[in-house]
Design a protein that fits this description.
Structural class: alpha/beta
Number of helices: 12
Strand content: 15-25%
Radius of gyration: 18 Å
Helix content: 25-40%
Order of helices and strands: HHHEHEHEEHEHHHHEHEEHE
Length: 288
């Protein structure tokens, strides 16, 4: 297991009870970033109504539990045993929910899925592991099945004007990040998806701490992931901002001025323009 994956596993085992509290889907106007991600997938889940749903890095199982009225069977997989213990204790009474303590890279199933989600997962994978995950996801999915990922947003490094910005200056990536921000604003999403020059690269600098005790949490830009997913048989349909910031300050904090209503924002045609100001983004792709 790669260093960042092992560090992440240790963190989530230690923090399982606290993380479980954060993960409960909320209808409150102000939501933490874990709830925002889960709510986003839940809205898509209600829209897709998958017969079979797989949640990778399912944590304490809240998203899997929410899916139960829409699916024949929902499965949650997580490598942190204490997370799965909480999920089993809370939700194993429901017959169409199953939980497995395992790495998804070792997971085997005789079923195919209409929807696979992975929140807060790919940032702990090496590129080699990420490739294996996409190959496996493709095999596990029905044709036209949907894959929903959350990603830490490398474009935010350019917009946040913080220590991450300084690190990007050191690696001389700043100009390229700014160009992608301009492309997002100036192009239609179909035009933006056709840009093929940006490739995935391993993050090669030790990052400022972000609340989760790992040395590296991989970050990608939307265009990098669009190109990378295409290599493994997926077409991206949507990107969406999570954890928006104003002047570098998260609007998640208790602030009556800035309230993030995900249902309202889902109706905005211009939400892609908010991506540079979000520390995380969701990406929805369909199997070709």
């Amino acid at each position: 297991m790669k260093t960042q994956s092992l560090q992440a596993k240790n963190f989530f085992n230690r923090d399982s009870k606290n993380w479980s509290k954060k993960s409960k889907v909320s209808n409150k106007k102000i939501q933490n970033f874990v709830q925002q991600r889960n709510n986003y997938v839940y809205e898509k889940l209600k829209e897709i109504k998958p017969n079979y749903f797989l949640d990778v890095g399912c944590g304490s199982g809240d998203l899997v539990n929410l899916s139960k009225k829409y699916t024949i069977e929902s499965i949650g997989v997580d490598f942190a045993k204490k997370m799965i213990d909480i999920a089993v204790r809370r939700f194993s009474k429901y017959k169409n929910l199953k939980f497995y303590n395992d790495s998804i890279l070792n997971f085997k199933s005789d079923k195919k899925f209409n929807l696979i989600s992975a929140n807060g997962f790919i940032e702990y994978l090496s590129l080699k592991e990420f490739s294996r995950f996409l190959i496996l996801s493709n095999k596990l999915m029905y044709k036209k099945g949907s894959l929903i990922l959350s990603s830490r947003n490398r474009l935010y490094n350019a917009a946040s004007l913080n220590n991450f910005t300084l690190k990007e200056f050191e690696t001389k990536n700043y100009k390229e990040l700014i160009q992608e921000i301009i492309d997002l604003r100036e192009m239609s999403f179909d035009q933006f998806k056709k840009i093929r020059k940006r490739k995935i690269k391993e993050v090669n600098f030790k990052q400022p701490k972000t609340g989760i005790n790992v040395d590296v949490r991989h970050q990608y830009t939307p265009n990098q992931l669009i190109n990378f997913l295409s290599k493994y048989g997926f077409v991206v349909e949507e990107i969406f901002p999570i954890n928006l910031h104003v002047y570098g300050k998260s609007i998640i904090e208790k602030n009556d001025i800035y309230k993030f209503d995900i249902k309202k924002n889902l109706e905005l045609e211009s939400y892609k323009n908010l991506i540079p100001y979000a520390s995380t983004f969701m990406i929805v792709a369909k199997k070709k």
